[in-house]
Amino acid sequence: MAATMRAWQVPANGEPGDVMRLAETPVPTPGPHQLLVRVKASALNFPDVLLVRGQYQVRPPLPFTPGVELCGEVVAAGADVTGFAEGDRVIGTTALPSGALAEYALVEAADAFSAPAALDDVQASAMHIAYQTGWFSLHRRARLQPGETLLIHAGAGGVGSAAIQLGKAAGATVIAVVGGAAKAEVAAKLGADLVVDRREQDFVGAVKAATGGRGADVIFDPVGGDAYTGSAKCVAFEGRILVVGFAGGTVPTPGLNHALVKNYSIVGVHWGLYRQLDPALVGQAHETLCGLAADGVVQPLIGGVLSLDEAADGLTRLGAGETVGRLVVKP
């Protein structure tokens, strides 16, 4: 194994294209509970953009290497690690500041899982965060039932596309909201029963028309801002609005009197807390998702495969909302 590697570095916070530098850095050494992983593929996530900007809830010390998710091969294990061997193919979240936009990365052993055999490296790299988030959102937090109507914002995005597949697998009627005709086509291919292009029509009216005025039982919102505002206008009696993220850049401030009068729930989804507080549930969800991958239900939508040199450009496009599914970097 080489003593040095190519890795993207963030020496100061800002826009990815302005501040990220591709450098030759030492290969990191795993701590007692960590794995050193040769990166085979790294899926770009919106938190990567926020980390580079310095806007994420976690702020790693500068300089750091971004890339929160990977599929890779175990090269070495820390002294206290059990259950992993050299050569094992794994997926998981990285231990910053040694992220996945590099040739090697560190992963806490507790955050590493066997890669699903049904998926290649690129697909597997895009499974963990999006599908775990979708699974916990729909099943653990919303208790989605067969026959219910599920409204998904940013349906052609990495997390939204996963939610469409999981919602259909759960027996829901899925309405996907997207921005633009190309993304509408993608959401329809993913299996959404109704696709609404928010640039062409008002999604609130479309949801009410599709449900006979009743509204959506469960609303999956990784966007915030206007998406949330509209969601509150078309949520059903006893509906659940899942607050998954704020990719639109605006954190809503909902009126709780409205939730009371219309009798709906506003439900926060912070998947990372399960990793901290109930990791056994994450492991169970992983087994379930691997089974769904083997059945062909879980098929991560890959919007493009980039070289390591193109990673900063990929994050710029992701931050601008110009991507479909997951962009994946192959070192």
UniProtKB/TrEMBL annotation:
Pfam families: ADH_N, ADH_zinc_N. GO terms for molecular function: oxidoreductase activity; zinc ion binding. Residues 17-329 form the Enoyl reductase (ER) domain. PANTHER family: QUINONE OXIDOREDUCTASE-LIKE PROTEIN 2, SHORT-CHAIN DEHYDROGENASE/REDUCTASE. This is Oxidoreductase. It comes from Catellatospora methionotrophica.
